[in-house]
Amino acid sequence: MGYVEDFFDEIDLAMIKRFTAEKMSEDLHLEFKSPRNRDEAKRPLARAVSAFANADGGVIIWGVEKKGNLCEPRPIANATAFREQLEDLTGQAVSPPALGVRSVEILEGAESGYIKTLVPASDLTPHMAKFGENRSVLSGC
């Protein structure tokens, strides 16, 4: 396993709380997203999967809002349902499809919480973002 996969495996609720408490910023391997529904998730998913798959891979944390270079917690009300929606969208998000993308919910309460999505680096580049983007994204999701 590589750095990105190891980082993905380490992310838990305590680490997400640390990210937001310390106002951590995004970097080459980490993106924060806070859509309110499936439709709002499409374009950010496509852009992030394209960028990470075309580069060294990365992790998307869903339920953390990016404000400038900082982040704020915005837990997802039904994290399990949102993860299922992300999984349904992932195969359509980029062309060719990115292989090995997986999402896991990190619950904070009975149903609310966060989702972490692993996007491994791909050998099938370039991946073109879909859902209205229709272009390859290399960085700056």
Task: Draw up the topology in text.
Layout: H1 3-10, H2 13-21, E1 30-33, H3 38-54, E2 58-62, E3 64-67, E4 70-73, H4 79-93, E5 94-95, E6 102-107, E7 113-119, E8 128-129, E9 135-136
Parallel strand pairs: 1-2
Antiparallel strand pairs: 2-7, 3-4, 5-8, 6-7, 8-9
Question: Could you characterize the architecture of this molecule?
Answer:
- The protein has 141 residues and is of the alpha+beta class.
- It has a single domain, classed as Methyltransferase, Cobalt-precorrin-4 Transmethylase, Domain 2.
- 35% of the residues lie in helices and 26% in strands.
- The chain has helices at 3-10, 13-21, 38-54, 79-93; strands spanning 30-33, 58-62, 64-67, 70-73, 94-95, 102-107, 113-119, 128-129, 135-136.
- A four-stranded mixed beta sheet has the order 1-2-7-6. A three-stranded antiparallel beta sheet has the order 5-8-9.
- The model has no long low-confidence stretch (mean pLDDT 91).
**Mean pLDDT over the full residue set:** 91
Count of DSSP H/I helices:
4
Number of strands: 9
Distance between the termini: 24 Å
**What fraction strand?**
25-35%
User: Regarding CATH, which class?
Assistant: Alpha Beta
Sequence stretches where pLDDT stays below 50 over 5 or more residues = none
Q: Look at the helices and sheets and give the structural class.
A: alpha+beta
Radius of gyration: 14 Å
Main sheet record: 4 strands, mixed
Q: How many domains make up the coordinates?
A: 1
Write the CATH homologous superfamily.
Answer: Schlafen, AAA domain
> Which CATH architecture would you pick?
2-Layer Sandwich
Instruction: Please tell me what the overall shape is.
Output: globular
Order of helical and strand elements: HHEHEEEHEEEEE
Q: Helical percent range? A: 25-40%
CATH fold label: Methyltransferase, Cobalt-precorrin-4 Transmethylase, Domain 2
Tell me the strand order in the biggest sheet: 1-2-7-6
